[in-house]
Amino acid sequence: MANGELDLSSGVxxxxxxxxxxxxxxxxxxxxxxxxxxxEQLLGRFEVSRAPIRQALKELAVEGYxxxxxxxxxxxxxxxxxxxxADVRPGALYQYLSDSGLHPASKVSGIQRVxxxxxxxxxxxxxxxxxxxxxxxxxxxxxxxxIEASVYLRAPxxxxxxxxxxxxxxxxxxxxxxxxxxxxxxxEHEAWATAATAGQAATLGVREGSPLLVIETIFFATGxxxxxxxxxxxxxxxxxxxxxxxx
Length: 247
Known about the structure:
By secondary structure, this protein is an alpha+beta fold.
């Protein structure tokens, strides 16, 4: 798809190629957020039928890259490359990023069994001196740092994954599910804005004092037992957490 052109011999569905081209243009700031993406304009550009155009725009809207204004058309969403829907299941963000074509990678460090800080112990209802598996994960998208996370897991003592295993899997919960049958039921989040410390700025590639989004999560296993805690710090200009409420 060099220079935004379709490759009719690739075997990749046309709607997916169109979607990937438009998504890249939106993420790179090429698409004008004030100019609608009309079906007619895209039909003339890509010279395909209307069906793949509509499917591409539909999926871009679901992923948060475009939005529809009644009577005005479909417009690019400026800013964040990553739009995380709230219905992404617990522990599956990495897979969601991969399925979205964002080429995620992760770097895991500091794997050890530790007694968590008192605040985390109280949030998880732990016994005094109970030790959890702890590690840090840096998630990158398109080779750029996006999320720095600190994770504490309530896992069996013989669960001792290597950094490579955690990096390849993208989720410790997927490993726990396969090896021990542990499944997650739900997660509870708290989110707030903060300013980047010197350490966070160096890790995430932003200026010290830049805005960051913190999402703190408690994971619950089936049956309601707290299974883990995570604090994830996100580059605010690159990440949006999208959710819907209903009455």
